């Protein structure tokens, strides 16, 4: 019997970035506008982009919104790709596994902004993941999550239909925050969560 790699592990993601050259949905203007409205200017505050992939979001936070951004991904190939795209000083890149890694190796002990774009759905242990995020989020900070919502795609492809989070996953995500704002963007929902 062949063991299936956890979808939150480097074993799952490294071949997708290294061999397949996989790329995911780039930031669009509407999503950038939502971030500007919900996150505001960073003014040099520390930000952590979880699952940064090719680094598009981390670079936007750093260069456009003014955060001092660290992008992490469990895939060494994704981090290498992100770093290779930097033409000017920008985000710090670090290969780290948010699900199981040592959080003390991160650039900062706490972050004013933590982002998680197209990643939450893939976390096997969502309560554990959210607990780790809460430990890293500075008082008054924002946890920005962008994720697909189940049932929004107009397709019959079962592989694509399974990409969204369920209502119970969405409820888990928003539970326990003092502020939970949402904005819809086609099949995606953006969450601005504050302690």
Care to describe what's here?
It is a single chain. This protein has 195 residues and is α/β, with parallel strands linked by helices. 31% of the residues lie in helices and 25% in strands. It has helices at 10-18, 29-39, 56-64, 76-84, 126-136, 158-161, 167-174; strands at residues 46-50, 68-73, 92-95, 111-117, 137-148, 179-185, 188-194. Helix 5 links the parallel strand 4 and strand 5 (137-148). It starts with 9 loop residues before the first helix and ends with a strand.
**How would you spell out the order of helices and strands?**
HHEHEHEEHEHHEE
The total of helices stands at: 7
Give, in spatial order, the strands making up the sheet with the most strands.
3-2-1-4-5-7-6
Which radius of gyration do the C-alpha atoms yield? 16 Å
What is the averaged pLDDT score?
A: 90
Strand content: 15-25%
Distance between the termini: 44 Å
Alpha-beta classification: alpha/beta
- Contiguous low-pLDDT stretches (5 residues minimum) are none
Main beta sheet strand tally, sense and closure: 7 strands, mixed
Helix content: 25-40%
Number of strands: 7
Q: Which overall shape is indicated by the principal axes computed on the Cα atoms?
A: globular
